[in-house]
TrEMBL record:
Stored NCBIfam families: PRK09283.1
Lineage: Bacteria, Pseudomonadati, Bacteroidota, Cytophagia, Cytophagales
Pathway: Porphyrin-containing compound metabolism; protoporphyrin-IX biosynthesis; coproporphyrinogen-III from 5-aminolevulinate: step 1/4
Assembly information from the UniProt record: Homooctamer.
Entries under InterPro entries matching the protein: ALAD, ALAD_AS, Aldolase_TIM
Protein name per UniProt: Delta-aminolevulinic acid dehydratase
Organism annotation: Aquiflexum balticum DSM 16537
Length: 322
């Protein structure tokens, strides 16, 4: 045998030398859940180790993450039913706790990259990402609401907006709204290939944001589809997106690679709630080594081509490397 691949695996030092993919804390954005009030920290039942925080405790938690080197955060608000309506009106109320919190977080930690979520679901009495009429999700009417929400988030100080709604044309619509109001420096990380996935279940528990009727299949992508992700990627690129995201990550590693090979934009991947919970649940039962499973799955996302990883494991990963 002339070729013996095992020679390059014979010691840890050699393995380190030939290692092709390396994770870093710089790769991560940590998604966090915000609730109104003070001194609140409530664990999400289906996501062990992940909490809904009131702003005061969220600031403390962010300071701890920053100490560990995490510099990117994505904040999702959880609203009580009483604040929700058909039009997601609360989403662009300048006095709403989410927007005030964004402002406070950015003034407390100006050096971080703060991402906000653009979609109607946390504020919608229908629990959908778009405006519902007669059981249908209206696309173009939703764009107007999303653009108002996006502008309000930019005014509050967000660095990156994440349209997670999957309406057609929303990246361009939001981009022109931002530019018309002088927010040319606010970035858009588009949820480009966001699939209608079972893996969002724990997130919907965290935000009480499950759809009241129907499902999200008329706007989120069919898990069977691959080429269609390129259509979405081309549109988002033309419409001015700064990052293209694939979501979920682990069941869609092929799609991450597809976008990486077909775009010069940075590719983000969202390692979603269900992907986190599966590892946690199996580890709690002692069925797998949770730490190794975390590292292996994060590594696979990067190896597939992601430049940015949104993951509930971000802090745990950062603590592990420290
Ligand atoms: C909705 C939104 C969802 C997630 C992020 N934004 C859920 C959904 O589409 O129903 C899921 C994130 C996760 O599961 O971690 N705009």
């Amino acid at each position: 045998m002339l070729r013996r691949p095992r020679r390059n695996r014979k010691s840890q030092v050699i393995r380190n030398m030939v290692e092709e993919t390396r994770l870093s804390v710089n790769d991560f954005i940590f998604p966090m859940f915000l609730i109104d009030g003070i001194n609140q920290k409530i664990e999400v039942a289906s996501m062990p180790g992940i909490f809904r925080y009131s702003l005061d405790l969220m600031l403390e938690e962010m300071a701890a993450c920053i100490d560990l080197g995490i510099m990117g955060f994505d904040i999702f608000p959880a609203y009580p039913e009483s604040k929700k309506d058909k039009y997601a009106t609360e989403s662009h109320n300048p006095d709403t706790f989410y927007l005030k919190a964004i402002h406070k977080i950015k003034s407390t930690f100006p050096e971080i990259v703060l991402m906000t979520d653009v979609a109607m679901d946390p504020y919608s009495s229908d629990g959908h990402d778009g405006l519902v009429e007669n059981g249908k999700i209206l696309n173009d009417e939703t764009l107007e609401i999303l653009a108002k929400m996006a502008l309000a988030q930019a005014r509050a100080g967000a660095d990156i907006l994440g349209p997670s709604d999957m309406m057609d044309g929303r990246v361009g619509f939001i981009r022109s709204m931002l530019d018309d109001h002088g927010f040319t420096n606010v970035s858009i990380m588009s949820y480009t290939a966001k699939y209608a996935s079972a893996f969002y279940g724990p997130f919907r528990d965290a935000l009480d944001s499950a759809p009241k009727m129907g499902d999200k299949k008329t706007y989120q992508m069919d898990p069977a589809n691959y080429n269609e992700a390129l259509i979405e990627a081309d549109l988002d690129t033309e419409e001015g997106a700064d990052f293209l995201m694939v979501k979920p990550a682990l069941a869609y590693l092929d799609v991450i690679r597809l976008l990486k090979d077909n775009s010069n934009l940075p590719i983000a991947a969202y390692n979603v709630s269900g992907e986190y919970s599966m590892i946690k649940a199996a580890a709690q039962k002692g069925w797998i080594d949770g730490e190794r499973a975390m590292l292996e799955s994060l590594l696979s996302i990067k190896r597939a081509g992601a430049n940015v990883i949104l993951s509930y494991f971000a802090k745990e990963y950062a603590s592990f490397v420290k």
